[in-house]
Amino acid sequence: MQHHSSGERTHQMPPPAPTSSLRGLFERVLPAMVPTRSSEAESIIRELFALADIEIGGTRPGDIVVTDPKFYERTLRGASLGFGEAYMDEQWESNALDVTVEKIMRANLKQKIQGSWKLKALTAKALLMNLQSKTRSGPSVEAHYDIGNDLYTRMLDNRMVYTCGYWKNAKTLQESQDAKLDLVARKVGLKPGMRVLDLGCGWGGMASWAAEKYGCSVVGVTLSKDQVALGNEMWGPNGKKLDVELKLMDYRDVKGTFDRVISIGMMEHVGPKNHRDMMSVIHRTLKDDGVALVHTIANNRSLRHGTAWIEKYIFPNAVAPSLSQMGRAMEGLFVPEDLHNIGPDYDPTLMAWWDNFDRTYSEISHRYDRKFYLMWKFYLLAAAGAARARDGQLYQVVMTKIGRAQPDCRMV
Predict the structure, then answer these.
(1) Which of 24, 69, 86, 407 is most exposed by smallest CB count within 10 Å?
(2) What contacts 12, CB < 8 A, 6 or more positions away?
(3) Cα–Cα dist 407/410, whole Å
(4) C-alpha span between 177 and 352 (Å, rounded)
């Protein structure tokens, strides 16, 4: 669920071509549920990709090579799911996958191929069910965050921060993550002796920063067993001996009150039916004169579920909020004191994660097979391309309870 280097990689799109013939093609394939001859599918996909300045068989950055003709019909019928699965099955390849996806996003091709009945079933399921209820949240978190600390220790920075960095004055991943953590600390005004709650604490990167650099006492909660185990080992009595306690707990079960409440990268997993619950938990646990901050990936439109490929392979039941969804969840509870969009910084963050993963993959290839490698490559590079195309944002929202004096929190 976003660039100091983005300018070098962004491609100017050519003006849209007249597409009277394409309109007819679109009308025939939307919603892409009737059988399509392979030759017709290839023709449609080639014309669609041409709109994005992607040449099939070309050699420029972002062009693709198709190695199995089943790719065409699979992509036409399955949209993002078919496109991603075809990549995992090595039916196509790109010499710059991030550029490929950036071009697709800029040309808005995902709106031109609506996908199959599976996508419509996903929408219906999200409408009828609470996909992020207490009983469903644990398994969803485990499916991504408990696949192995050996992967994440190689991919992430020294503090194991798995969220967007802040690259304004940073040249390395470590510098960007340290800058992000300190930006958050300054925005909420951390001071020695403060009691801090970190909702969705991950491996304790923010918690350790608040304790080590600002002298705070921090409680973090997450539903990942691996994160709690490694985080407590790193920051607890057997590690740096910081005043940090990470707990395996649903955010809805947190008790007590805190001077500051911080959530970095958790709201994407909460789900639309629970946005208000999350804000209510922050309100309940925050002292009246406290300051809260939510750092979250955000969609440009209000959605009920994520993309089908991400849902199936990366983040089950995760869907980032839109700004309007966040506003409705905050209404009557909080005053938004500052809104800061660092979405373009997700591009260099994801590219750095990919470089780390790719460079160290041979060390863990016995545990993560070739198909996982391609899946993870598609995840990281497609996300980088989408961020570069501004398909999603990254908001940091500073909030206070109604009536509190405005804090000094506008720091960029």
Answers:
(1) 24
(2) none
(3) 9
(4) 11
> Which of helix, strand or coil describes residue 290?
strand
The amino acid occupying position 139 is: P
Cα angle value 321/228/171 (rounded, 5°): 65
**Token digits of residue 87:** 């990549």
CB burial class (10 A; 0-12, 13-18, 19+) of residue 177? Answer: buried
Query: Minimal CA–CA distance to 286: which of 261, 264, 262, 263?
Result: 261
Indicate the pTM of the whole model: 0.85
Amino acid at 350: L
Strand boundaries in 243-391, DSSP class E: 244-248, 258-264, 286-299, 334-341
Contacts of 51 (CB under 8 A, 6+ apart): 16, 17, 19, 22, 107, 109, 112
Tell me the per-residue pLDDT of 260-280, one tens digit each, with 9 for 90 and over: 999 999 999 999 999 999 999
DSSP at 252:
G
292's tokens: 């809260």
Quickly count helices (H) and strands (E) in the chain.
17, 9
Distance CA 375, CA 394 (A): 23
Spans of all domains in the chain: 6-115, 134-401
Angle between helices 346-364 and 370-388 (to 10 degrees): 170
Cβ count within 10 A of residue 209: 24
Task: Check if the beta carbon of residue 85 is closer than 8 Å to that of residue 371.
Answer: no
Three-class secondary structure of residue 256 per DSSP: coil
Answer for the pair 163, 179: CB distance below 8 angstroms, yes or no.
Answer: no
Give 307's contacts (C-beta < 8 A, 6+ positions apart): 80, 81, 110
Q: Could you give the 3-state DSSP secondary structure of residue 268?
A: helix
3-state helix, strand, coil in the chain (%, to 5): 50, 15, 35
CATH 1.10.287.130 matches 134-401: no
The one-letter amino acid code at 147 reads I
What token pair was written down for 185?
A: 């600390």
The answer to whether 294 and 228 are in contact (CB under 8 A) is no
Task: With a cut of 60, say whether residue 378 has pLDDT above it.
Answer: yes
Instruction: Give the span between the Cα atoms of 125 and 122, in whole angstroms.
Output: 5
Peptide bond into 237 cis (omega under 30): no
